[in-house]
Design brief:
Elements (H helix, E strand, L loop, with lengths): L10 E5 L2 H4 L45 H15 L3 E5 L2 H4 L10 H16 L3 E7 L5 H7 L6 H16 L6 E5 L11 H8 L10 H26 L4 E7 L3 E3 L4 H23 L4 H9 L8 H9 L4 E5 L4 E3 L16 E2 L5 E2 L5 E2 L1 H15 L3 E5 L8 E2 L3 E2 L2 H21 L3 E4 L22 E3 L11 E3 L1 H11 L6
Helix pairs in contact: 2-4, 6-8, 8-11, 12-13
Bound molecules: 2-(hydroxymethyl)phenyl 6-O-phosphono-beta-D-glucopyranoside.
């Protein structure tokens, strides 16, 4: 059999998000973002979302790993690993500190100029997310977050500003990070980070709020795609979904159908991004449940005209659901239907480890959307130990990444899926989004800092650093 290989220009790299590594939360006129009002949780303990900054509480994103002042040193290390690209986000609050200003903050724009120049110095292509869990907190307080249609204009102004400013420095863009996380509308963290919706304890309309907010985000995304292409026709603008394929717990027809309904409930976001319209199942669902988001006929035209160039996805794990007699309508009531999958191992944080699920996901996305795919997050959060003061042996991380890269290569070689790049998450240790911990580490580069915020911030190369260097150098043929 003829072996196909990954294309020569395959985008190997790593991924991060501004709020999780930059720090400098109040530097150079930066405004407060939703990430700045989240305390540190713990393994199994959610982060607290406070009403502004509360004195005496610890907010791990405020300093994070101080990339804001150390980016030169860090990019040099990425270059040493051979990165072809580097995915990060632009903190909206550096550009528009409150989100509703007319004029951008020049100091913030300058920072990203310098950052992108530093990448290009080493031939590293920036891959930029516009909104990665860090919207201006002022938009939450004064407008109620994305429940408000006005947010579309604010986001589009932000997108236009950075598209114009960086049109010759950035070609790869994504609009909203993991827009589908909010499918779990009972989760306070996911609703706040996706949409700036701060749920009350008895928020009975959370589900309809989510459908409204998500609709405005999808319209804003489509407008940004259109605008971006008019500013630079060579821009590649993608969506970004958290791809968590849903498996049935058994071969019982009801379980299989329940899994299918769960997939519909999670992936209508990417249907709209990629195909430009609401899928029929969703139109009926919204109508029958009286969710009635405000969808205008202009919106529908915009959605059609602003479809994405590629599908960006994160892949960490699969999930498994079981049907319930008490749920004859097969509604996807999120965590209530999720069951343990005894066929897969789990990480220390209880996340299933399922490399074949990545190949399955890539096939599913290729079959549905027929667009190039870009794996912009994948990885294992794990505890690391520094030995002999300098060494970090992380065979568990290498094993996880190796199996997932192999699954990706199988999808390309055996299934004909088009994948344009692979950027594992947290290529340098950073603040965990879900828990606010530092000890949940994903990096090839260790950062000396603990969950209380103590440490020298010194960078150390883990064993996986040298392993990934060889993966890139061999274009994936030496895993
Ligand atoms: P952490 C939930 C489920 C899957 C991915 O997550 C998620 C989340 C939110 O926690 O987030 C993505 O840090 C996200 C990154 C995040 C990464 O996965 O909780 O895009 O910002 O850090 C890993 O272990």
């Amino acid at each position: 059999m003829n072996k196909l290989f990954l294309p020569k220009n395959f985008l190997w790299g790593g991924a991060v998000a501004a709020n999780q590594l930059e720090g400098g939360w109040d530097q150079d006129n930066k405004g407060l973002s939703v990430a700045d009002i989240m305390t540190a949780g713990a393994n199994g303990k959610a982060r607290e979302i406070t009403d502004g900054i509360v004195k005496g509480k610890y907010y791990p994103n405020h300093e994070a790993i101080d990339f804001y002042h150390r980016y030169k040193e860090d990019i040099k290390l990425f270059a040493e690993m051979g990165f072809k690209c580097f995915r990060t986000s632009i903190a909206w609050t550096r550009i528009f500190p409150n989100g509703d200003e007319e004029q951008p903050n020049e100091a913030g724009l300058k920072f990203y100029d310098q950052l992108f120049d530093e990448c290009h110095k080493y031939g590293i292509e920036p891959v930029i997310t516009l909104s990665h869990f860090e919207m201006p907190y002022h938009l939450v307080k004064a407008y109620g977050g994305w429940r408000n249609r006005k947010l579309i204009d604010f986001f589009v102004r932000f997108a236009k500003t950075v598209f114009k400013r960086y049109k010759d420095k950035v070609s790869y863009w994504m609009t909203f990070n993991e827009i589908d996380n909010q499918t779990d509308y009972t989760n306070r963290f996911l609703m706040a980070t996706n949409s700036g919706l701060i749920l009350k304890n008895d928020q009975s309309d959370a589900e309809s709020l989510m459908y409204q907010a998500a609709h405005y985000e999808l319209v804003a995304s489509a407008l940004a795609v259109k605008l971006g292409h008019s500013i630079n026709p060579n821009f590649q603008i993608g969506c970004m979904i958290n791809m968590t394929p849903v498996y049935p717990a058994s071969s019982k027809p009801a379980d299989i159908f329940q899994a299918e309904k769960a997939m519909q409930r999670r992936y209508w976001f990417s249907d709209i991004h990629a195909l430009g319209k609401y899928p029929e199942n969703m139109e009926v669902f919204l109508k029958q449940n009286n969710f009635r988001p405000d969808i205008t006929s202009e919106d529908r035209i915009v959605l059609k005209e602003g479809t994405v160039d590629y599908i960006g996805l994160s892949y960490y794990n699969s999930m498994t659901v079981q049907s319930k007699e008490s749920n004859p309508g097969f509604h996807f009531i999120g965590p209530e239907l999720t069951v343990d999958n005894p066929n897969v191992e789990k990480s220390d944080w209880g996340w299933p480890i399922d490399p074949l699920g990545l190949r399955y996901s890539l096939n599913w996305l290729a079959d549905h959307y027929h667009k190039p795919l870009f794996i912009v997050e994948n990885g294992l959060g794990a505890y690391d130990k520094v030995e002999n003061s300098q060494q970090i042996h992380d065979p568990y991380r290498i094993a996880y990444l190796k199996a997932h890269i192999q699954a990706m290569i199988d999808a390309v070689q055996e299934d004909g899926v088009k994948v344009i790049g692979y950027t594992p998450w947290g290529c340098i240790d950073l603040v965990s989004a879900g828990t606010g911990q530092m000890s949940k580490r994903y990096g090839f580069i260790y950062v000396d800092k603990d969950d209380q915020g103590k440490g020298s911030l010194k960078r150390l190369k883990k064993d996986s650093f040298f392993w990934y260097q060889q993966v890139i150098q061999s274009n994936g043929s030496q895993l």
